[in-house]
Design brief:
Elements: E1 6-10, H1 14-26, E2 33-38, E3 42-44, H2 50-54, E4 63-65, E5 75-79, E6 82-86, E7 91-94, E8 97-100, E9 103-106, E10 111-112, H3 120-123, E11 125-126, H4 130-150, E12 157-161, H5 165-185, E13 193-198, H6 209-221, E14 224-228, E15 232-236, E16 239-242, E17 246-249, E18 252-255, E19 259-260, H7 263-267, E20 272-273, E21 276-278, E22 284-285, E23 288-293, E24 298-299, H8 312-330, E25 345-348, E26 354-358, E27 361-364, H9 366-392
Keywords: FAD, Flavoprotein, Oxidoreductase
Protein name: NADH dehydrogenase
Cofactor: FAD
Length: 397
Amino acid sequence: MSSIPKIVILGAGYGGILTAQRLQKELNYNEADVTLVNRHDYHYITTHLHMPAAGTDTIEHARVSISKLIDEFKIDLVKSNVKEIRLQDRKIILEDGTLSYDYLIIGLGGEPETFGIPGMLDHAMTIRSINSVRLIREHIEYQFAMYKNDNKRNRINFVVGGAGFSGVEFVAELADRIPKLCKEFDVNPKNVHIYNVEAAPSALPGFDPELVEHAMNVLKKKGVTFKIGVPIKQCLPDGVIVGEGEKIDAATVVWTGGIRGNALLEQAGLEVMRGRVKVDEYLRAPGHEDVYVIGDNSLVFNKEGRPYPPTAQIAMQQGVNCAINVVAAIRKKERQPFVFTSKGTVASLGKGEAIAVVGGKKYKGWKAAQLKKLVDLRYLFIIGGIPLVLKKGRFFG
């Protein structure tokens, strides 16, 4: 019986892929068995999903075959759904088998957080996966086609719940796509309405107020109506109820208002806050020194005691740190505490427009849009080198 430690990584998102790649780089031959479990055989670039969702880019630009990113001689890829995490038995129950582990890395990604808004789970769509994105795109096109048949105004009303990064970036792409859809389906653009509804007192919470104002002005010129400081009270099959009972009729509601961790963590007996595990300084789950939690599943606090938002940037850095610490544990060496280093923040506002804070400097417009492209290209380079940059990179548009 092999005494080689078994490492199991759950999820091939930003954190999972970076963990796997770093492990295959750090581990010696036969030093550990590494298994990566993912429900698809591709990794998708979550920060890019708003574009194919709106129909301004292809799905192929948002996904990469996992076999192109890992060395399958060093890492075993298992395509399956995780059904249960049994921490006491050190076992993972899959839909078609069982895995045992010595070291477990949980990076299963998040689930929509609806804050208990009635009807949201039943009637709204979310930008969470390649399949959900495909559904949104086809649904939007279907509404335009149906409008020409029945002339129902709510078919070409669109409500996006949440004006954080995902909401604003999707609204921007949708606003860019509307003129083309109007031309294709012979619809008067004046009849189309896009509403972005946010319960918080500001769009893009946490962003510089000057840049938020710029972003809102850009999007208002593109035809977006903002309702800021107005909560969605209920989601219906034909629209939403907002604020003090106002109804917005819409056949399309896309919810981007929040992410929570994965339900499997709480079911496994881990202590969670909104589905996330408050990890220790080495990214381990409390009371389980061989279980690491990263990405949307983890809760990491800054020096002021506030949780970092779950971004691709933090998940990537966690992945690298996690791999280093697992290797250190195997070799009985000292682990490295996780310290997040922000590389800046960029939000796309559609074609040729963005806002950014990088290196303490503020950027907007075309310059910020180029920074957004550089961020995307940098990620492709990190996970797949120049070949992936050339294949998937967006250099124009």
